[in-house]
Design goal:
globular, 28% strand, 128 residues, 22% helix, disordered C terminus, 5-stranded mixed sheet, alpha+beta
């Protein structure tokens, strides 16, 4: 019989670990006040990596506005598809904070999904 007491590990860390990411988000709001709002998540830093900012836009148009504002090249956009559920994403970094943009609800025909793509138009990785 084991009589040792175990305590749960707190792997999340304190909110202060998200401070720089929160500041990046506040700076983006100040610099681009007219761009569309996003569903925003700040991921908890873990295992020595900093917090990450995810910005999910409702439309491809909103995604493109943010992509342009953050100077992310079009070739860095990845198309993800799984049947009719398609989305696009792109990543960048600002002041040491990783930022991931995405937009869901992209409607593609079978012909569009299977069409060859030039590497300058989209990232080569396509997930199925």
């Amino acid at each position: 019989m084991n009589t040792e007491t175990t305590e749960p590990r707190d792997e999340d860390g304190p909110i202060s670990g998200q401070r720089s990411t929160i500041q990046v988000l506040a700076d983006l709001a100040d610099q681009h006040p007219t761009l569309p709002a996003s569903f925003t998540t700040i991921h908890t830093p873990g295992h020595g990596s900093p917090a990450r900012l995810d910005m999910q836009l409702d439309t491809p148009t909103g995604f493109e506005q943010w992509r342009t504002a953050l100077h992310i090249p079009a070739g860095a956009v990845t198309l993800h598809y799984c049947g009719t559920r398609s989305w696009i994403s792109a990543e960048t970094e600002r002041h040491g904070t990783a930022i991931r943009l995405s937009a869901h609800g992209i409607v593609l025909t079978e012909q569009q999904v299977t069409a060859p793509r030039d590497a300058s138009e989209t990232a080569p990785a396509v997930t199925a």
